[in-house]
Every structure is written in C-alpha cells, then in structure tokens.
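Sequence of TRAP dicarboxylate transporter, periplasmatic binding protein, DctP-like (Desulfonema limicola).
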Amino acid sequence: MKKLFIIVLSLFLFSGTAFSAMIIKLGVVTKPGSAQNIVSEKFKELIEQRSKGEIQVKIFHSSSIGTETEILQQIQMGAVQMGVITGGPFDTFDPIVRVINYPFIFKDNDQADKILDGPLGDEILKSLESSGFKGLCFSENGFRNLTNNKTAVKTPEDIKGLKIRVMSSALHNEIWKALGANPTPMPWPIYTELEQGVIDGQENPLWVMEVYKFYEIQKYMTLTRHVYSPHIDVASLKWWQTLKPEQQEMIQKSMKDAAVFQRNDNRLKDADRIKLLKEKGMQIEANPDIDAFRAKVLNLKNIDLYKEPKVQALLLKMLDAVK
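Predicted 3D structure, token representation.
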C-alpha cells in the first residue's frame, strides 16, 4: 500500500502541472465577446500552448476585480500580473499616454499600426516602466464614435449641452468640453445610466454598440472617429523582473501575436456592425462635418495636460509623423 502511494505521489509531482505551472492573473473590465476579452483569450490560448501548460492564464473579466484604474493599481503592486486596459485611464499614471489619445491624430488603421508598432509606440511602452508597468504592445478598442438619445449630430453645435459619459481620463474630459458637451466621468459598464437618462450619450468603438446592445437605448450615432482608442497590454514590472528571459520572450511574443489577431478581427467585423445597428433602428450619421470637429480641438496641444516636456516632445514628433 505504501509503495502504491509513493508511485501515485511521484506521478502527481512530475505530471508537469501540479506544482510547476505558473498562473498569470489577467484583468479586464469587459464581458466575454468584447475586444479586451478577445485579445486576452487569444493570449491565454497561445501562451498555454507554447509553454506546454507550464504557464496558465486566469482571466478576470467583467470588472470582477475592479475598474481599469483599480486593476492598474493591482498590477503595479504585483497582485495581478497582467491587464488589457484602455489607453485613457493610464494618463493618471503616466501622462505620456495622452499623446495616443490626442483627437483626430490618426487618419486610419494603417497609420495607427505604423506609429504604435514603431519607435514612437515603443517610447510610450518604455516610459510606463517608471510607473511600475511593463508595456508589452497595443491591441485596440478602435476608433471612437458618439451616440446619444437626444438629437442627431452632424456638427459640434449639435453636441452643445449633451451629458456625455467619458472614461476616467483628464484628456477625454477636455476633449468633450472643447466640443461643447457636458462630459461626465463614469466607470464601466454604463447601460443602466443610459437607459435611465442619467447621461444622454457616450462615445466608444462600434463593437461596444453591438456587444453591449446600446442600440436598445441610444437612437443616434455619429461616426466622428474622434479618437483612436488602443488597449495597452501590460504586465507588472515587479513580476516581470522575476521571470526567466525565455519566459519573458514567450509572453511578449504571445501577447503581440494575440494583439495582431484581435486588431484584424475587430476591423473585419466593422462593416457588419454598421449594418446590424441600422437594422436595429439606430440613425447613423456617416458623414459629419469632421473639419468643424477638428477646429474645436485644435488648441488642445497647448493645454496644461501636454506641457510636461517629455509629453510635448513626443506629441510634436507624432504630429509630424502623421502629416
């Protein structure tokens, strides 16, 4: 009996999973099927496959461990190892992230990829180390568009006075003030607040309107594409520095591959999303007066949020790169 016990115990110890598996806690605020979840689930699939099960991922979704800001705080401490986080909430940790949330900076997806996958994007990811994050790469929410339940919007004048939910971002607050709205910071999710009329509208990429069924409670959508919204896929720097180089390389590559997969997946679905939203009854303004919107935010580069030298320097480099 004792011999049998030893054999069973040995098999358990050396099965490759019982004691050797590394568990990565990865936090997102969105529900399954959302953009953040798609990149997270692809990363989980890739890293578990490539590590032969020695690295496993536990995804905490639907704000189960807090808001994006709270997840970032846990990542800083090393209590959570990784996160797929919208760009906006980072600006309270490192102001350099405000550069990628600058309104109308990217004209299309190709330009966004070229900049963020290149040296300027690397500069942002590297800067995050000073706040305790290991920046891995950029996946995406996508270009953000305005919805509301009050009025059709074609020009900035139509926005005046609308109570628009914004994420916890000083820059996003300033953008909507400049456009004439009444910006209202509010954590995710916001369906109930929209349904009850606590807020008039919100701004997000097309996938959000579909997955969160905003067509049920928002009548009007305007394809403003005012901000390209990336996710910044990050790890805890404190945790990252405990890993072996080969583990770091595998995690970095798997997250990058997952990000590319998710960006392509997101873009392929956008035409069908527009069609669905129209079928569901949303009135879509596909050709707003973008020049008028741009004119309203032209002076944002001069506000205090961009006056820190490293932020101002990178913004000018990025504005020059996208000409």
